[in-house]
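Model it.
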Amino acid sequence: MIFRMALLMLLVLMATTSTDTSINEQQTYIVHMDKAKIASKDNSRKWYEAVMDTITDLSAQKEDSTSSPQLLYTYETTTGFAAKLSRKQLESLRQLNGFLSATPDEMLKLHTTHSPQFLGLESGKGLWNSQNLESDVIIGVVDSGIWPEHDSFKDSSMSSVPSRWKGICEEGSNFTASNCNRKLIGARAFYKGYEAKGGVINGTEEYKSARDAIGHGTHTSSTAAGGLIEDANFLGLAKGSASGMRYTSRIAAYKVCWFGGCASSDILAGVDQAILDGVDVLSLSIGGSDTPYYKDNIAIVIGSIIDPSASAQKEDSASSPQLLYVYEKITGFAAKLSKKQLESLRQLNGFLSATPDELLKLHTTHSPQFLGLERGKGLWNSKNLESDVIVGVVDSGIWPEHDSFKDSTMSPVPSRWKGICEEGTNFTASNCNRRLIGARAYYKGYEAAGRRIHETEDYKSARDAQGHGTHVSSTAAGSLVKNASFLGLAKGSASGIRYTSRIAAYKVCWHRGCAGSDILAAMDQAILDGVDVLSLSLGTGNSGPYVSTVSNTAPWITTVAASYLDRSFLATVKLGNKQTLMGSSMFTGKSTVQLPIVYGKSAGTQDAVYCDYGSLKRTLVKGKIVLCESGYVSRGEMADNVKLAGGAGMIVLNIDDDGEEQIAYAYLLPAITVGATAGKAIKKYISSNKKATASITFNGTVYGNRAPAMAAFSSRGPSEIGPQVIKPDITAPGVNILAAWPPLNSPTSADEDKRSVPFNIVSGTSMSCPHVSGIAALIKSVRTNWSPAAIKSALMTTAYTLDNTKNPIVDVATSSSATPFAFGSGHVNPEIASDPGLIYNITEVDYLNHLCSLGYTSAQITLFSGSGSNFSCPRTRIPLGDLNYPSFAVNFTGKVQNKAMTFKRTVTNVGVPGSSYTVKVQEPKDASVTVKPTVLNFKKLGEELSYTVSVVGNRGKTSGGSSYSFGALVWVSGKYTVGSPIAVSWS
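Modeled.
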């Protein structure tokens, strides 16, 4: 487990797992092997190839007519590989010594300027002072690639690429080595997994390179590390200076997402390469469903890098196994195997596990200011920004030409960097520079799943064809770009959160998703490349506001929720009865006059309520405003259908579950989205007025709203897989975030939308993830020796739970106070997190002991152990509640009275010597809390002291009430307030 090498901030959305196949049909599996059983440790790929040969020989002996196994990737960081195998081949694999597990590859989806200010980041102060921003932090963005020409990625004033950087600027479709610079220092594309799953990269729509054709990777890259851009806006909205959270960071783009999704095997390959290249922060905005840790390839690859040391015999008719990837840090490989070949593999000495590859989906001008970051102060002072932090972004790639990735004024690439700028479709080594120092693309898992990468719609390289990876990369580490905006909205200077960081882009997501094997390959490579922070937007997911929808809940993963900034894009509806109702819109045209409203049957068929295709009658709709209810039709499709029918405007009503959600949309006709309360008022007015009328007015960008507030779409806890810890961990800006965008992607991705914008405004947990990735890069600049657990602890214990009106943070889904199952410990507070006073540290052994307490087998635990098979569970299991986590999850079964649960915690003094901390407790309803001792006296820095917490349930046998109650435990000493949430579940 090599957590010191790469911080992984993950946000996971819904995933589609591979369906069952016939015994001879091949599919991609991600295979994990026991590191201790590898015969040639200096070259694990040779061992995996030998494994493939063994399975092929066994198949031949049994007259197996199935294709040979195909090795797609080998993974260094997780010890394994991705390969196409039939069931028989998989069974052969299971017999091999050293086999641990095999899981089917899956296709994942991408999750998706005011943020720094909202987060309290100020130029020249604290985390954004010149000293903090000087360090060469490299952020690897594993996403849909990057648009390198974007202003967010310009490298002016950046120093040379750090010598430690081992990445490359991989050339490919519309991407050359010149696309990289001192900001975008690396770019690669991964698509073997995507193509293995049947994904087609259409060259007319996508780039077979690290170039972003989707926009997601460009957006996330600029959010995390995009450079400072003055006057950024989206069609005139959200005007201001846009920047990533650590806007001086370098960026390395790893494109793993394509139009059809992101193959898990490509994601793993991207992550693997990012680590090998030398990224400091690895950012992924991709995700899948919540599964047990030992079946979760993302959890395995992260868990396996915590340590800083870091079938013929069964008449198999399948073809030979196909080795897709070899994973170095993960100790395993990805290969296409039949089920019989997999069974043969299971028999081999050293086999640990094999899981089917899956395709996952990808799950900011004002953000730094909102976060409290100020130029020249604190984390954004020159000293903090000088250090070379490398952020690896595992996403849909990157658009290297974007201004957010320019490398002016950046120093040479650190010598420690081992990554490359991988060439591919429209991507050459010149696309990398001193900011984007590495780029790779992973698609073997995607293609092994039957997906094809169409060169007409995506790039078979690290170039971002979706936009997600570019957006994420610029959010985390995009350079400072002045005059950024979205069509005039949200104007200002745009930058990443750690805008001086280097970026390494690992493309694992394609148009149909992100293959798990590709994701693992990317993560594996990112660690080997040398990233400092690994950013994957794989986190909580966008399935809220429903209970227990949170995903990616392993305790070593930082799970980030999404919340609102204090900026909105205000629009209003004025009804014929003079009532005015507020909503949101990014329409930049003229307001409407008073027009008739039509709704439901007065607009067409029964489905006209949802404005479905063909449901609206032109004779009823022409020249009128159409009322549309949210449902199974997207807002973009609604707008297209209304416009096609001749409608003059549209009002979209939230469903009750979404409450007062106000996600802005760049409509192509005059349109507004209103909350559930306003929607009911409009429907009431229409029902009582046969000649109902309305007008829509567009007010542009508005600041000073009540914030933060929890987004309704942000997935909620508690975790069904790991209820022993509170998930999510923390929340960050994820609604209406402005960041870099590839010029070939329209802001809405609709066929009718021909607009080209350098910045786009996007919402999702994918957007909150790179904020935290960038902040992690900032803190790493200041606290260079801190472990990932220490940084995570600092983020959690300094988070706040009151909004800018000094009232509890609101959940917009219910309009009531949000709970820790929505925001975790609270809203991230970067400047305070850089000096938290106390930290809760967790070691590799602590995590492994926790797995022992969960009842995991030795083989399952070996998946996570960097030391291979050398770890043994203690004879006496450590209580589940004693994992040194910065929060307290209390689970009572049945109606209990006077039943106690006890927790032990150890804190380390990182504040000032000779300090005394006193505990304050806010007790949850129907529970009493006792802390011993109540005072902790520290004599020196680095000193560790322990305390115990006893929570007693006071519910009688007949008492009822909510299934959950919440409280808090806070240690106070002078300026330090070290808080932990308490969540009690009654089941």
